[in-house]
Structure of M18 family aminopeptidase:
Amino acid sequence: MAADRARKTTLDLMDFIHAGPTAAHAVAAAAARLEAAGFARLDERAPWRLRPGQGFHLSRGATGLVAGRVGSAPPAEAGFRIIGAHCDSPGLRVKPKSPYEARGYLQLGVEVYGGPLLASWADRDLTLAGRLLVRRRGGEPRVALVRVARPLCRIPLAAIHFQREVNQEGLKLDAQKHLAPILGLDGGRAPGAGALLELLAGAAGVRPADVVGADLELVDAQPPALASLREELFAAPRIDNLAGCHAALEALLRAPATARATTVIALFDGEEIGSQVPSGADSFFLDAALERLSLAAGPGREAWHRARAASWMVSVDGAHALHPNYAEMHDPHHLPALNGGPVIKVNAKQRYATSLLTRGRFEECAARAGSPVQHYVHRSDLPCGSTIGPIAAARLGIPTVDVGNPMLAMHSIRETGGVLDQEWMIAALVEHLGRGERRSARRSARPPAAAPRPRSARRPDRRTGASRETPAVRRSGVGRPPSRGRGPSARGRGPAR
Ligand code: CO
């Protein structure tokens, strides 16, 4: 049954989120799924030899991932079908000289990464996850992932008796003074640093003496959970944007292995801090990977530029669902609902990359998949957020649409999403990855000049009544009006399959 399938998909998303407390863990979890499905690991430093139909993945610095499947036609002819998402989330990162002792307590120094809702980090069961640099005999040090399974530290708020007005005036948290978590009590002669090192080394399965460095984050110790009366909602850390990563990954795994176009997903690091990191959307990470895929199919810089011109990208990142307690914060005519389907994000200043053509194309993909879509525009009197879409689109020159599933409490340590939306998003993305292949096949199956369209291209869509256009028609701007989101009216429906 369709609702069961949606629930199963969300339970799988929750597992993926739990496996990814940091960007490095999420990338490793994604790579493990790809390898289980036969995708070969590529090394950026080695020559690439790829054959049509082959799945591949590569990571850069362990915190970004590009994966895909080589199409049966060269990219210069069939283009790339790309999905982008980001694998980092806002939070608190541990400073190098930690822990330290202060006034009888053992504490960690932390820096704020990105824009978390700081209050949500207070009085929660927190633990540590990240990477250890481990010495190897006769070789370069290696990186080991580490995660402590149990609650390890807390950031207690000051009691109400010290700040009587806090509920009226708002909680103010100074990033330097108020966020240092308490790891325990000063152990007197037993130094805390040694005990923490032993704990971390044990969790990573390495010898404490071999650990030469650590890169640690504070993370929520509580696993994701279904959390509402009829289990129609779920709560989890990092829904922004591991939901986007999971959707991209699952769409790639489900997409047909015989597509003409080369399919690519990119899980970028550094989105929450501006994307200017080596595996970020504002780096050459995806750019270089696409160019090499093009060169692997045939020599020539022109072929690469032709490939770009024939490509489409969908950028997936969280969207704001209507919050009933803060309804006035939304534009009254754009109110995405949880379990209302994927949201297409639009912004006049191009804080979202969505254009008329890319919006229309995604709406068609969703309609084909039986997924409802909704639309989001930020209030005109508030500055709009942004994402990887505009950055990657500008760098690559590839038409891009910004979409995302509706969620509450974005950037809280624990966010809320709807149980139906992930399956709808994945289904629409599979159409995006596979659809161009069918169109290209149709295009190449007929003479290049103005030949009559095949019947299938003119047949109206049974669900929407809209006729399907060829890319040539769409690109000339003669498409039908794009806006036909079903919006909140779709609330409560199971996936239409
Ligand atoms: Co995001």
Observations:
- The chain is about 30% helix and 20% strand.
